[in-house]
Amino acid sequence: MAVITVFNQKGGVGKTTTCLNLAAALAMGQRHPIALDLDPQGHLSLASGLKDATLSDAGMAAFFRLNTPLAKLLRDTPAGWQIVSSSLGLSKIDALYGSDPKAATLLKKGLSEDLALTGAPILIDCCPMLGVLTLNALLASDRVLIPVSADFLSLQGVHLLDSALNVLEVKLKRLFERRIVVTRFDARRKLSYEIFDKLRDRYGSVVCNTRISENVALATSPMHGKDVFAYAPHSPGAADYKALTAELINSGFFEERVAV
């Protein structure tokens, strides 16, 4: 079981879009992924076709508030992969556990107890803030995937996030293996190439070769509760996420971390 957190402290960078379409691509490759929606807004749950998901506390909120096993909270999506959905009840978790230092390890414990035997890759979609929920995701993860849109403010944001992860590594005495993927790339704009080159200069091979182009299908498909492969399988967005998934698979990003 490899656990991947998809995270960026800046909103609007394609975090949920990336989580949604990676899950769909992995499912098409018979890897049977499981997604955890840790954003109280529940955008991943809605985009995956679960229209009623955010109206109840039966998803991740039930895990944190009622200790309900994750395996009992799994729901099938129309695309064939599974998800533990989100709801607004998750917004209360920071207030509920904010002063409890042990709260940050709840998800790691839950995954090892409930989902470890599935062997499925786990994708975690986080809200754009570093709180109890995101710390749970990071401590439970093997790796972190950081979507960065091709604009100046997003470039500055990834530097701040990288610094925050470095501080956490020292504090928690563990490494966060990470990859950066450039999203909302517009080949008509010189700035997009400049942002990609600056990221490559600073982070080297941590930056994915695949770039996710600005694409109408990627923006529209969540409105229909579908991933881009179900909504527009021949679109540039589908081709980009298929290529990104293949790149990450070939690099071992979805392989379970070997204990040393």
TrEMBL record:
The AAA domain, residue ranges: 1-171
Protein name: Cobyric acid synthase CobQ
UniProt-listed SUPFAM superfamilies: P-loop containing nucleoside triphosphate hydrolases
